[in-house]
Design a protein that fits this description.
The complex is a heterodimer. By secondary structure, chain A is an all-beta fold. Helices cover about 0% and strands about 50% of the residues of chain A. Chain A is built from no helices and 11 strands. By secondary structure, chain B is mainly β. Helix content of chain B is about 0%, strand content about 55%. Chain B has no helices and 11 strands. In chain B, strand 7 and strand 8 form a beta hairpin. At the A-B interface, strand 4, strand 5, strand 9 and strand 10 of A face strand 4, strand 5 and strand 10 of B.
Chain lengths: ~110, ~110
Amino acid sequence: NAGVTQTPKFQVLKTGQSMTLQCAQDMNHEYMSWYRQDPGMGLRLIHYSVGAGITDQGEVPNGYNVSRSTTEDFPLRLLSAAPSQTSVYFCASSYSIGPGQPQHFGDGTRLSIL
Amino acid sequence: GIQVEQSPPDLILQEGANSTLRCNFSDSVNNLQWFHQNPWGQLINLFYIPSGTKQNGRLSATTVATERYSLLYISSSQTTDSGVYFCAVGGSAGGTSYGKLTFGQGTILTVHP
């Protein structure tokens, strides 16, 4: 049981490039989300999804795009990378959004924008 | 939006000592979780505890929802307890807000041998 798998683990981009961070879970979880963590700070929610075909914005959605075509996968797209998007990105999932559902996190993707 | 404050920001202990970490939040919540981020950056879910008390080995947590705070207790600390402890809350607006966690800034715990 792999849990939440994020790829790549590290990535360096140039300003203006685009890329997709991958997130996959094998726990049949309905709820998935993306967070970013900046130095000395807690995590901030970027986008989330309550099921296939349903996505919504979190606290810091600008510059990011998501889609949820399957239950297992929730990719995060950077449309035109900016240095302010240098961060560690975490994907999380839980069985549902209801009470009693702990969230499980992937190991993160460390992204540097030059 | 909801505000989450954690204290203390830093904590240094000798192995074997006990500690209490606190999380205050500004609105009623239906989702409160404690996480440990280890030195390798991995986030481990410790407790889902929107109210009441839970224990797991040397760790326990108590949330007093009516007074809007939660406490994480670590007893007989070990060097492997080092890392950052985050409190995260959600669910104040009902519906999909359950899963939209707002994180505190964390408590950095260092346990020396």
